[in-house]
Amino acid sequence: MKLIIDDANLDTIKGLYEYFPVDGVTTNPTILAKEGKNPYEVLMAIREFIGPDAELHVQVVGKNADLIYEEAHMIRKRLGNNTFIKVPVTREGLKAIKILKKNGFPVTATAIYTHMQAFLAGKAGADYAAPYVNRIDNLGVDGIREAKEIHDIFRNNNMATEVLAASFKNSQQALELAKHGVGAATISPDVIEGLVAIDAVTHAVDVFIRDFESFCGKGTNMLNV
Q1: Of the listed 37, 86, 95, 123, which one is catalytic?
Q2: Cα 182–187–61 angle (5° rounding)?
């Protein structure tokens, strides 16, 4: 399962890249607005840092297929060919996905709440389909089960589309999808940090260091014993 950062703050992205085996960055209009800068300024800085080959997912805001297509051209022109165009799965969105795929754009179908949205996005040619796990939970439906079932729908229908699960509230949700073989998850920085923020692990490491220092002397390590 690919692990993709769901954030647009460059310092945060740099910090996560330093420690975690991540595969790229996703953004949306809300995340970009939080940075308080021109969206392309933010996105171009991210692209420069992650390089031309890493995945960068950028969402359109146009409400009709023609405008979405024009936005996609500008996004790709400014951010490179390996930039996935995020398109909400509406009626116009499905039309736009078909057009974009015919013209060689990588596409992430987003704002997915139902199996049928995902299925239609896959039929239209989307590379990824992004179900909103936690938001689906908030509607009284099991978001993890929904994402797993969407993954199974794609496999059972011989579709190349992968699930890019989004909207997580905890690391356990990501683990459940990894065990199921879901293609990718886009996760906020705090949840990514939570993947290794385990009190028992921290305590065990502290004990190891304490026992070592009690025998070899305070401040010693395997370089100076």
Answers
A1: 86
A2: 100
What pTM does this model have?
0.90
Task: Reduce the DSSP state of residue 217 to 3 states and report it.
Answer: coil
Provide the residue type at 207 as one letter.
V
117: which DSSP letter? Answer: H
CA nearest to 60, candidates 17, 16, 27: 27
How far apart CA 162 and CA 218 sit, in angstroms, is 51
> Within its chain, how far is the Cα of 185 from the centroid?
5
* Span 77-133, pLDDT tens digits: 999 999 999 999 999 999 999 999 999 999 999 999 999 999 999 999 999 999 999
Contacts 24+ apart (CB under 8 A), 46-52: 46/8, 46/10, 46/13, 47/79, 47/80, 47/83, 49/10, 49/13, 49/14, 49/17, 50/13, 50/17, 50/24, 50/25, 52/80, 52/82
Contacts of 65 (CB under 8 A, 6+ apart): 92, 93, 95, 96, 99
Q: Please give the span between the terminal C-alpha atoms of the chain, in angstroms, as a whole number.
A: 41
Active site residue 86: yes
- The answer to whether the CB of 169 falls within 8 A of the CB of 190 is no
- Write the CB contacts of 87 (distance below 8 Å, at least 6 apart in sequence): 59, 60, 68, 93, 96, 97, 100, 107, 108, 109, 110, 126
223, two tokens: 């370089």
Q: Which two tokens stand for residue 150?
A: 């969407």
Q: 158-176 pLDDT, tens per residue?
A: 999 999 999 888 888 999 9
